[in-house]
């Protein structure tokens, strides 16, 4: 029995066009990634002299060796893990609690709270007042300067609120009849049902913080506290290479060689956590997109 769906001619043409466009988009995404990854495995002199090539004689792991033995990039990587994990935990916790509260029927002043939150999406105090607040709170040069300022994300709260509103009220009413408190209802009934939105918010928050560097550039002076993205910014944009990376090699051409080698290897290492996380979070990511579209 042939179970294939027979589409009208117009739909078949549209599907073919969509397939072609998707193939082009995939190529536009994967080709640069493959180029950077393969370039990180090439000996820099060969890359500069010959350009990109797949000759096995030009392959080298020296870039990765230097990165893994250099304290600056390793420390930046660990700092980014700490900042991203801490930011994710705080942001998701705040978003889930606020979203659930705003989804409860009969909450006094719910509309006023929503208006207040929405205003903050369009209007802010600006960089200088925010800096003064961070300074006066004594958070400069601390992890809290990275985590706290962005902990309340209105868009995350709206996503969580929309998800909670889709949960049938009958579940909560039945629990109340059995004598469960609001806290017990939230912990025992609501939280087990909201794994998809928790994973979605965690993915959004982790990716956003992992790629961020501006707050660290403003609030952190100690290089030992720099996240990986700020270290990479120095390497990729300002062409700064730490003395420890070049050891006793001080010649300018050798410095350029080391910098070129470290650039590609650093990009690959910085992308690894996101590339590893996304396949496991993909199904939740799709559900999160649907929650946003329903809103």
From TrEMBL:
PROSITE patterns: ABC_TM1. The chain crosses the membrane at residues 20-38, 81-100, 112-134, 140-164, 185-207, 261-281. It is a multi-pass membrane protein. InterPro entries: MetI-like, MetI-like_sf. The keyword Nucleotidyltransferase does not apply. It comes from the Bacteria. Residues 77-280 form the ABC transmembrane type-1 domain. Its main location: membrane. It is found in: Cell membrane. Keywords: Cell membrane, Membrane, Transmembrane, Transmembrane helix, Transport. Belongs to the binding-protein-dependent transport system permease family. This is Carbohydrate ABC transporter permease. It comes from Metabacillus rhizolycopersici.
């Amino acid at each position: 029995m042939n179970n294939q769906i027979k589409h009208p001619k117009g739909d078949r043409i549209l599907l073919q066009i969509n397939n072609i466009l998707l193939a082009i988009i995939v190529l536009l995404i994967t080709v640069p990634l493959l180029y950077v990854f393969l370039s990180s495995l090439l000996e820099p002199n060969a890359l500069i002299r010959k350009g990109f090539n797949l000759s096995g004689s030009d392959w080298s792991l020296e870039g990765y060796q230097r990165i893994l033995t250099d304290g600056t990039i390793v420390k930046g990587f660990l700092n980014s893990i700490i900042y991203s994990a801490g930011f994710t935990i705080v942001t998701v916790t705040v978003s889930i609690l606020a979203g659930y509260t705003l989804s409860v029927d009969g909450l006094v002043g719910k509309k006023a709270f929503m208006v207040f939150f929405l205003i903050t999406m369009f209007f802010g105090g600006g960089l200088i007042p925010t800096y003064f607040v961070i300074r006066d709170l004594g958070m400069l040069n601390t992890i809290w300067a990275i985590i706290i300022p962005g902990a309340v994300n209105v868009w995350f709260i709206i996503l969580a609120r929309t998800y909670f509103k889709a949960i049938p009220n009958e579940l909560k009413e039945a629990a109340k009849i059995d004598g469960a408190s609001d806290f017990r209802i939230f912990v025992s009934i609501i939280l087990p049902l909201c794994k998809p939105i928790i994973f979605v918010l965690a993915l959004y928050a982790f990716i956003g913080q992992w790629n961020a560097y501006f707050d660290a550039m403003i609030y952190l002076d100690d290089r030992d506290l720099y996240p990986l993205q700020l270290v990479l910014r120095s390497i990729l944009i300002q062409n700064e290479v730490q003395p420890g990376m070049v050891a006793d090699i001080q010649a300018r051409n050798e410095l350029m060689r080391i910098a070129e080698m470290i650039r590609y290897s650093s990009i690959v290492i910085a992308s690894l956590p996101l590339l590893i996380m996304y396949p496991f979070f993909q199904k939740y990511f799709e559900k999160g997109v649907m929650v946003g579209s329903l809103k």
